[in-house]
Structure formats: structure tokens, C-alpha cells
UniProtKB/TrEMBL annotation:
Protein name per Swiss-Prot or TrEMBL: 3-oxoacyl-[acyl-carrier protein] reductase
Presence of the UniProt keyword DNA-binding in the record: no
Enzyme class: oxidoreductase
Annotated organism of origin: Siminovitchia thermophila
GO molecular function, one term: 3-oxoacyl-[acyl-carrier-protein] reductase (NADPH) activity
Domain Ketoreductase: 6-186
Length: 247
């Protein structure tokens, strides 16, 4: 491939925010590696949408909780496409429960997927990015890491860890021109929020100054900006896109 072509990896890209980010990056000329864990059908739909818009994408199955799968994904990407310019750590889970009701295995699953999975993804792309002396790492955090939201203790802990890691890595990787930022979405209309009880959804919506949930494309547009040359002087930041919830 030409060294002028751009390549992005998006984890958890089979639906929701991950799908929207994949499509947005493809529209900006990126060849997108669509990572998924369970649903091949959903992941293929993401690729189909990208191709319908004139973009290119390849699939890669693997849980972000498996470091060998993450390394394999990056190695395959470099071998097939020549490089990795952007990594979007989007894969995550939310088990909405009060802390006293949260089981140890639910806590561990949340931390393993959201925080440790982000670490595995970043660890895997560092060598090719450092060798190239260029790269963008975009971590999908959550407004739960900024504002206390009842029933999301494990989720908030995992996403707060991502924010802390983002700031440290921004300093560690700046000498290699690798920019690291976090996006902290508020309540976005996805399958994840669709699983919430109606009473909880109404309570959350009422707490948002704009009185609506966001759309996945509103997160994707900002991720696309952070991946662009317009964001060349931005690193180590956590950007809340939440309709004013964290104000």
C-alpha cells in the first residue's frame, strides 16, 4: 500500500458509537479495521455501511481482554495495510447496578474490558507508532468519569482510569508525536442505553440540560476531528460530549 494511505483500528466497532466512528473515519479516507468480539453479523453490517459510502474496511475478531488477540490484530493490520495511524479504544461494557448489588465478577469484567482492554490495545500499537514517530490514540471514556451517576460505580472507576492513563501517556508519547486524548460521551442512544429501565432513562434524560440523549454520530464527528490534522496541537485532554450534563 502507499505510505500516504491512512489506517485506523476501532475496537468494539460492530454497533453503536464504534460503528459510527468507523464510518466517519472511512469517510475521511481511512482504511478501517473493524474489531468485534461476538456478533459477526453486526460487524459485517458496519463494513457494508463503510463500503456503501465508498470506503474500505476489514474485519478482525477478538476480545480486547485478550492481549494476544490485540497483538495479533495490530500485527495483521501492519502486515496487510502497512501501518496503524489511529487507534480508537471504544469497546466497553456497562452493568448498571448500585455498588452494594455489584458482584465481584461483574466488577472484574467491567475493569477488564473497559480499562485493561484499553491498555492492551494501546500496548499493541505502540511499537509501530513509535517507529513511525506518528499516531493518534483516542480513548472512549464516559461522563460517568466526570460526574457521579448512581448505579455506575464500576463503570465510572474503569473510565476514570482511562482518563488518568490518557494524561500520563500524552506526556510519555509526546516525544514520538503520538497524541492521546479521551472522549467522555454522555448518554448516547445506543443498544447499551436501550437496556436501561424506562424509569432510569427518564431520570437520566431529565438531568441533561439539553433534555435529550446524544447520537452516535455526534461522538463520531469529534473522534474524526481528533484524528485529523486540525487537532495536531491537542493531547492529554478529556472532552465531555454530554449535552451539558457535566456542567
Amino acid at each position: 500500500m502507499s505510505t500516504n494511505e491512512k489506517v485506523a483500528i476501532v475496537t468494539g466497532a460492530s454497533r453503536g458509537i464504534g460503528r459510527a466512528i468507523s464510518v466517519a473515519l472511512a469517510k475521511e479516507g481511512y482504511k478501517v479495521v473493524v474489531n468485534y468480539n461476538r456478533s459477526l453479523e453486526d460487524a459485517e453490517k458496519t463494513v457494508e455501511i463503510i463500503q456503501e459510502n465508498g470506503g474500505e474496511a476489514i474485519l478482525h475478531q477478538g476480545s480486547v481482554t485478550d492481549p494476544e488477540k490485540m497483538k495479533e490484530m495490530v500485527d495483521t493490520t501492519v502486515n496487510q495495510l502497512g501501518t496503524v495511524d489511529v487507534l480508537v479504544n471504544n469497546a466497553g461494557i456497562l452493568i448498571p447496578k448500585y455498588l452494594m448489588m455489584t458482584k465481584p465478577e461483574e466488577w472484574n469484567a467491567t475493569i477488564d474490558t473497559n480499562l485493561t482492554g484499553t491498555y492492551y490495545g494501546i500496548k499493541a500499537v505502540l511499537r509501530p507508532m513509535i517507529e513511525k514517530k506518528q499516531g493518534r490514540i483516542i480513548n472512549i471514556s464516559s461522563v460517568a468519569s466526570i460526574s457521579g451517576i448512581s448505579g455506575q460505580a464500576a463503570y465510572a472507576a474503569s473510565k476514570s482510569g482511562i482518563n488518568g492513563m490518557t494524561k500520563v501517556l500524552a506526556k510519555e508519547l509526546a516525544p514520538f508525536n503520538i497524541l492521546v486524548n479521551s472522549i467522555a460521551p454522555g448518554f448516547i442512544e445506543t443498544d447499551m442505553t436501550g437496556d436501561f429501565p424506562d424509569r432510569m432513562l427518564e431520570e437520566y434524560r431529565d438531568s441533561i440540560p439539553l433534555k435529550r440523549f446524544g447520537q452516535p454520530t455526534e461522538i463520531a464527528d469529534f473522534a474524526s476531528f481528533l484524528a485529523s490534522e486540525k487537532a495536531n496541537y491537542i493531547t492529554g485532554q478529556v472532552f465531555a460530549i454530554d449535552g451539558g450534563l457535566s456542567v
